[in-house]
Task: inverse folding
């Protein structure tokens, strides 16, 4: 091969090599782009999968924490429609939620229906709800701490219903000083609501107050979550009703634990309990209702001056442990719309009374025990002004089982030792003396 041919061959090889390298670079670039695209696709696919998984997990969790209300329709209260599906849902749909991080001295105003999440820690902050009377507002407490001097932490001026949902284990609402009024409204609780109020969730809410803990001027429901209240006045109060389906509730108060009462109308103010665990240490009444107190289920451990009080007290189930210094259970004439009556149909009931002139089961009207297991330690086990009868169940007084009631006080001429079963109506009360209990709700 001559020099000229070698020159052309070298040039040809160089050209081929350049084309090969260029091809490799292009292929590498294409491979890189392809890999990147694949990675992006995989990332997108993973993100989409995660979203689906999160949605699925959310749905499963949502279903897992839905409370079942063990209600009945044949008690003193027709409880079949006292709780809605949303009342019993313990998690909130945060898809379109509005988030707030609380800041010192910066009030929050909610004027529209929706879900609002509160986070952070601050002083002198009031979350005010002033929405249309058809609006449902859900306030989700997700690690929030508010300490006020003289005004509610949550103040509901108007709405159809407000849900306060505890979503984490570290939520605190506290008022440390003397409450100030809002015009003619005496705002006297850490949570103060003029509309229907529901407390639920999977987390914990700690409330401390120099007056009331929670005050509702309509219907108040507790269906889940852990609620700890320390206050000087009523821990949980409502005008129309208090309804408890579930939750872990601990109360330490100098006055009443649960109180349903409306000063301007003694035909309302009932309390219905069908679940949950309640530990109540009260300076006055642990549970106080103007009209009817009905317990179908739940666990109640009570230490108070009086344990349970209402015009009509009906116990159909549950585990109830009462330590009292006045009356253990008192069916008193609180309402002009009903006749006093105490009826026990089921459950496990322990009543331990302090020394002195105290009554374990006291009724200003009739007293009927039809079932359940009752263990009483008291100087006076029974005190009733109307008819009384032990129709069933197991009753032990100071260590001995009894087969008939022995009245500690003989009031009027219609009393018989051991009681006398009256003619009972459909709700198990003396004939003609019992009106239909509160029905339904908002």
Result:
């Amino acid at each position: 091969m001559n020099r000229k041919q070698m020159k052309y061959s070298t040039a040809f090889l160089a050209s081929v090599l350049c084309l090969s390298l260029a091809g490799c670079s292009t292929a590498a670039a294409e491979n890189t782009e392809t890999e990147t695209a694949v990675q992006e696709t995989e990332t997108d696919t993973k993100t989409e999968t995660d979203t689906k998984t999160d949605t699925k997990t959310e749905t499963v969790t949502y279903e897992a924490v839905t409370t079942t209300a063990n209600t009945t329709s044949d008690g003193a209260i027709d409880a079949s429609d006292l709780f809605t599906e949303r009342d019993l849902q313990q998690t909130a749909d945060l898809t379109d939620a509005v988030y707030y991080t609380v800041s010192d001295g910066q009030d929050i105003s909610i004027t529209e229906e929706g879900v609002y999440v509160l986070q952070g820690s601050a002083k002198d902050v009031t979350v005010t709800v002033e929405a249309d009377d058809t609006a449902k507002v859900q306030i989700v407490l997700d690690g929030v701490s508010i300490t006020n001097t003289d005004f509610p932490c949550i103040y509901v001026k108007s709405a159809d219903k407000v849900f306060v949902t505890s979503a984490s284990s570290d939520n605190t609402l506290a008022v440390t000083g003397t409450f100030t009024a809002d015009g003619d409204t005496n705002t006297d609780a850490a949570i103060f609501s003029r509309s229907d109020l529901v407390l639920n969730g999977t987390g914990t809410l700690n409330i401390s107050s120099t007056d009331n803990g929670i005050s509702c001027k309509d219907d108040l429901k507790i269906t889940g979550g852990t609620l700890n209240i320390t206050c000087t006045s009523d821990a949980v109060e409502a005008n129309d009703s208090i309804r408890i389906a579930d939750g872990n509730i601990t109360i330490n108060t100098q006055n009443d634990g649960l109180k349903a009462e409306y000063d301007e109308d003694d035909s309302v103010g009932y309390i219905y309990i069908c679940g949950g665990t309640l530990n109540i240490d009260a300076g006055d009444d642990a549970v106080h209702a103007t009209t009817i107190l009905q317990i179908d289920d739940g666990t109640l451990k009570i230490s108070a001056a009086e344990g349970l009080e209402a015009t009509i007290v009906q116990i159909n189930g549950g585990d109830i442990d009462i330590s009292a210094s006045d009356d253990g259970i008192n069916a008193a004439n609180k309402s002009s719309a009903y006749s006093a009556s105490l009826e026990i149909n089921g459950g496990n009931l322990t009543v331990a009374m302090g020394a002195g002139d105290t009554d374990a089961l006291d009724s200003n009207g009739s007293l009927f025990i039809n079932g359940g297991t009752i263990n009483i330690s008291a100087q006076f086990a029974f005190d009733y002004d109307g008819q009384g009868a032990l129709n069933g169940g197991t009753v032990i007084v100071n260590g001995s089982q009894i087969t008939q009631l022995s009245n500690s006080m003989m009031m009027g001429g219609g009393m018989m030792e051991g009681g006398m079963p009256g003619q009972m109506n459909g709700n198990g009360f003396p004939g003609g003396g019992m009106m239909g209990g509160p029905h339904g709700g908002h």
